[in-house]
Amino acid sequence: MNNGQGAVILRDSTLREGLDTPAVSFSLAARRRIVAALAAAGVAEAEIVAPSRVGADLHLAEQLVAAHRGLRTSGLVYGNRPECPAEIESATRVLDHVDVLMPLSTQRAPHAVGEKIALLVERLTPWAGRRVDIGAGFPHATQAPPDLVLEIAQRAVAAGARRITVYDTNGSADPFSVQHLVSALVAKLAVPVFFHAHNDFGLATANAFAAVRAGATGLDVTANGLGDRAGNASLEQITLLLQARGWSTGVDVAALPRLSRLVERLSGVPLSKLAPVVGEYVFAHKSPSHLYVPTEFEAFAPELIGRRRRIEGGTRSAPAGRQK
Prior knowledge:
By secondary structure, the chain is of the alpha/beta class. The chain has nine helices and ten strands. The strands form two sheets. The protein has an eight-stranded parallel β-barrel, surrounded by seven helices. A two-stranded parallel sheet has the order 9-10. Helix 4 (113-124) runs parallel beside helix 5. Residues 314-324 have low confidence and may be disordered.
């Protein structure tokens, strides 16, 4: 079990998962602003190409990459689509990293486990040994038998995958099962393991943290937790939690409120006042007695993200620093 003091890669998927949020769309100008904000905040990687719209996203990605060469970029292609080989070829010319997805649910084609493994190996093998950073991702991984996840991941690595990403696709996992699964993968695989959380049960942050404690190298996150259905693991929550527990991410936490407000404005999805880390009420107290020992009532200091604590209603306020 990993107890902190390491580095965790945060791959932001606001421009991929975020676009699966109902009624959300981003113009090229909006994408440029979000990518610029991610780069300014020190986010390591941005996932900017979705498997359902590879051609369209790659066209825009070329312009985003040209403007922000310091930010590592990645994208996804479906391994079960006949267009997959051509899409990999196109994506590797634009992006720094490409993941080939193979859904592990038997309800998604190919339905037989043996066919899934054979097809994934077929997709990856031509790229083995080439100077291309290609990985494999497994939707429905937390719904599949752990032995199957490990077997197909091992076969993918043998075929040339340089990264493995496991997905809690329907958000039904819990921290204990996530830790068990990721621990097993990390113990057997000689490549980085990433975890992708959904928030259907409100456990995305907890599940992502469990993955890190189990040895995951990286996490998929989105600004404001934006994403399909109930959203994804929140960039701001994960960043502050990891920092508090001794992991480094390279993200400037002071830049998170500004990034959050930008994504709120461009997406049109309002941020809850109760949202952890960046919500309006995070440092609002109704009890004046809290201000005598504020560290007993707050998970982290407000000055870390440029905020001040206050008494709700505006009758009394106090600075963010030490109280006497």
